[in-house]
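Journal club prep — side note

Before the paper discussion, L.F. wants everyone to see what a predicted structure for a comparable chain looks like in token form. Sequence:
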Amino acid sequence: MIVTDPVRQPPAPAEGLRDTLRRLSAAQKGAKGAPAYSRFVNRKLGRLFAALAFHAGLTPNAVTGISAVFTFTGVALLALVEPTVAMGVGVAACLVVGYALDAADGQLARLRGGGSPAGEWLDHMVDAAKACSVHLAVLIGMYRFESVPDAWLLVPLGYCVADSVLYFGTMLNEALRAQHGVRTRAQQSDERPSVVRSLLVLPTDYGLLCCVFVLFGATGLFVPVYTLLFAAMVGFLFLASITWFSEMKGLAR
């Protein structure tokens, strides 16, 4: 009796980077209310980083950790290094990469079949820390190197409060919507988000703020732009709070 080896099936071809990016494009969260940089630039950068992390075998939590390293390196530079043009470029690069990786961890989790409560908790804790630490680092840097009159130090202090309240309010809104069975803004929808609205809320975009730090070495340019973004944030937060409060009253009914 002649024994023959069983027919071996050829191994399945490995998924290429382009195929991974295509799968990620079909697994995006909703963009309703997202400002322009986060929606059109950061999400695409995050998609690329998520695909690269997937092929490197990284976990979403590992990507969150790498994001934190980039972000808080930029924060440390703001607080500890004397402002120069090169330093400003370095800060902006660290913050931009950190923000893109922040978008990548969630996309990687969806690519792998869904995230975990612990991963979501870690992601939001890092986000909460950076929301205030960036502005406190600006305050420390301006004070240490005496780059502005003391009165201007109130701007990063106010910005820290406004950014923290906006972040908390956004998270609280999503939690209350989900609790009352209302579609959250992060859920996918057939409704196409407004491009005009994304552009109107661009001054509140953390991604735009990251890019503005390229001016940090030129104080005469950075301070007016930073102050304008702060004023826009306060105005948006005031108007949004009125709308959100009305929406939350509707949830009770």
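L.F.'s comment for the group: Residues 1 and 150 are 95 Å apart (CA to CA). Keep this in mind when we get to the figures.
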